Amino acid sequence: MKTGNERLFKVLNANGTACHGGTLRWSLPNGRPGAWHAVTGSLVPCERGLHLCRERDLLTWLGPALYLAETDGERLDADDKIVVRRARLVARLETWTESAARHFAVACARRALERERAAGRELDARSWAALDVATAVANGHLDAKALTAAEAAARAASGAAAGAAAWAAAGAAGSGGAAAGAAAWAAAGAAMDAAWEAERQWQTAALLRVLFPEEATR
């Protein structure tokens, strides 16, 4: 949910439990916002408080389920998160699916490979093939067995190439078949040999187009 012009998020497992540390099981929205949660004591990043993401933080914390969140009261801004006294989940972002996460991973990795090709560097065909398989899996045309084989081949290619773009391609097909993990891995790899901040800005914009497709058509 936007607070003013700012949109805030919470990344969780689908059942409301934490996927990046913490013990709170969040009250999930169900046609209306979940219950408010609150903490006492001093707010300390990674130690005490309710942790939320801004748009620019999402790439760091991608996980299985993304929720719009809102807060009021005390707030502490950190480098890659905010810590708040009181918050609740407003709605789950149903656009963040296994398929959407895998497609986003492929987009990040493909961009990195194309950047390498434009620079005249030789690329292992196994990296490109892994992206084709990951796309087919995202579209429901292949199963996890094909993805596992593609990941193994892409990992071998990344070892031979020793390049971040090849690593990103392996990530897009990897993370044990978990699409959200693959998205985070591929995005990080794709930014490694690039101008980091510019690449992460591109990735954030691309991710927001996935999450809010109606805004991309305006």
Would you give an account of this structure?
The chain has 218 residues and is of the alpha+beta class. It has two domains: 2-92, no CATH class; 98-213, no CATH class. Helices cover 44% and strands 16% of the residues. It is built from seven helices and eight strands. The chain has a five-stranded antiparallel beta sheet, with no helix packed on it. It has a three-stranded antiparallel beta sheet with strand order 4-7-6, with no helix packed on it. A hairpin with a 4-residue loop joins strand 6 and strand 7 (82-84). Helix 5 (179-192) packs antiparallel against helix 6. The two termini are 19 Å apart. The mean pLDDT is 92.
What are the SSEs and their pairings?
Layout: E1 2-3, E2 6-12, E3 37-38, E4 50-52, E5 65-71, E6 75-77, E7 82-84, E8 86-92, H1 98-118, H2 125-138, H3 144-161, H4 164-172, H5 179-192, H6 196-211, H7 213-216
Antiparallel strand pairs: 1-2, 2-5, 3-8, 4-7, 5-8, 6-7
Helix pairs in contact: 1-2, 1-4, 1-5, 2-3, 2-4, 3-4, 4-5, 5-6
Q: How would you sum up this structure in a few lines?
A:
With 218 residues, the protein is an alpha+beta fold. The chain folds into two domains: 2-92, no CATH class; 98-213, no CATH class. The protein has helices at residues 98-118, 125-138, 144-161, 164-172, 179-192, 196-211, 213-216; strands spanning 2-3, 6-12, 37-38, 50-52, 65-71, 75-77, 82-84, 86-92.
